[in-house]
Amino acid sequence: MVGVVQRQKLSSHRCYPEGTVVKIPTGLTGVSGKRLLQGACLGAILTVALGFSWFGGYGFGWYTSGGAETLAKSRELVIAMAAYPRLCAQDFNAQPDAAVLRVKLAKTESTYARRELLPKEWLKLPGQYANDELTDRCAALVAPQKAAELTK
Asked: Which of 113, 103, 116 is nearest to 146 (CA)?
């Protein structure tokens, strides 16, 4: 359906001669249920897209449960990589035969062999297998001369 509106003078530039009747669709001039529904749907889609940062950038910072879990695990790994090697070294040094084990640890070449000599409870994150990076960091703290040789 088309409504009829008298063109008003808006600027000095004219597309139509003054007094021309311009036909404007009623969906643009009045309240239309279809337009309202389209706008609501588009608004909802854009809100969700911005919320979950689908366009890149910042957005509203929303996460799906899987995304939040992945983020939490990566943060847990960063914290564990900072704390666990020191705890491992403390437990290693508290053992009665630490000096003998330190000599054996300095002679080992593989991560698997180091893992057998170090305290098991500090070489893995809860619910996971032993972590090679944790093993290497703990061994570097326990036998620093071996770590210095590896970095040369």
From this structure: 103
As for how many domains the chain has, the answer is 3
Of 10, 41, 62, the last residue of a domain is 62
Predicted confidence (pLDDT) per residue in 45-80, tens digit: 999 998 888 887 777 888 888 988 998 888 988 888
| Residue 46: domain span | 32-62
Given a contact cutoff of 8 angstroms between Cβ atoms, the answer to whether 75 and 67 are in contact is: no
pTM: 0.51
CB 63 within 8 A of CB 116: no
